[in-house]
Amino acid sequence: MESFDKLVRAEFDPETTYLNTASTGLPPARTAAALRDVVAATAAGQQGDWFADVEACRAAFARIAGVPADRVATGASVAVYCGLIASSLPTGAEVLTAEGDFSSLVNPFHVRGDLKVRAVPLERIAESVRPSTALVALSAVQSADGRIADLAAVREAARAHGARTLVDVSQSAGWLPLTAGDFDLVVSVGFKWLLGPRGVAFLVVPEDLGGLTPVFAGWVAGERPWDSTYGPVGELARSARRFDESPAVFSYAGARHSLALVEELGVAAVGAHDVALADRFRAGVRSLGHEPVPAPGSAIVSVPGLGHRQPGLVRAGIVVSDRAGHLRVAFHLYNTAADVDRLLDAL
To answer: If one looks up domain 50-264 in CATH, what number appears?
Structure first.
């Protein structure tokens, strides 16, 4: 624990009580330094090995997700990857989603216009899978209120009915241990709990590439990218790299250092730290007469009826979110018990 705290103190020194990782994570000092260096080098006309940064990020996320690196594609947006998956479904296919899940995950299936998208309460996802269901798409942890999906039950129900699974781990990767190989498809951004800059996202595909057509494939999706820069790509990458987007190179130059820190600290240790703080806040806010949305074991706490306090808290230097009238508070590795107590005192 001492080494954990020492490493965190060396990387973070926020000027606010920052409790908003569910919106955007804070980049560590090493990431901020890497971003400054790569921008300065580029401005000076010195081009680094940008693709080495992308491959380092791919490998790090693969280790965090528990899958081989050749099953991980790198991009910039969960919505783009969900659009890719939506484009692969036949007309009339049924997609089962959770009510109120994040738009980047569910909207690409709605805009197709010819899919049957069905939304049910999160707690009823597993029991709602049926033989006509082609895909179950849900977030591991709900953005709005931190509720954790019963992914094991969803996985078993999907397998029993021949449906595929798509899990968005944007609100869990980095603090909640993940075995991406348990599901058909997994997507995540890198700028929340993984502490990277915006412009980094990942897609995990099956070993057989899932029958997806790389509809946005450019030269970086070629088996030999530098031989694929003109005309049709002669050979697509034999791995998930065929689904790579042309990278936001500055973002990846920073993200490799953020992912390295997450690996150094360990997802399990980060999760234990985060959830302990969230539990401290849950107990404290109950003592003030407010009942949080039930989300046991989550690093995100949502308190109904307190969303209106968000502007005043932000003015006081306590950064939180208002989500549909609920006060949403997210605890991560750079937070402390003193942060919890300061928020409780303010409330």
So the answer is: 3.40.640.10
- The answer to whether 204 and 75 have CB atoms below 8 angstroms apart is no
**How much is the pLDDT for 6?**
93
Helix (H) or strand (E) holding 188: strand 185-189
pLDDT in tens, 151-179: 999 999 999 999 999 999 999 999 999 99
337-346 and 267-287 are packed helices; what angle lies between their axes, rounded to 10 degrees? Answer: 30
Cβ-Cβ contacts under 8 Å for 209 (sequence gap 6 or more): 240, 242
State which CATH number among 1.10.150.240, 3.30.450.20, 2.170.150.70, 3.90.1150.10 fits the domain covering 2-26+266-346: 3.90.1150.10
SS3 152: helix
Distance, CA of 289 to CA of 43 (rounded, Å): 55
Q: pTM of this prediction?
A: 0.96
Please state the separation of Cα 209 from the chain's center in Å. Answer: 21
**Domain-wise residue ranges, the chain:** 2-26+266-346, 50-264
- β-bridge mates for residue 269, sequence order: none
- For residue 187, pLDDT over 90 is answered with yes
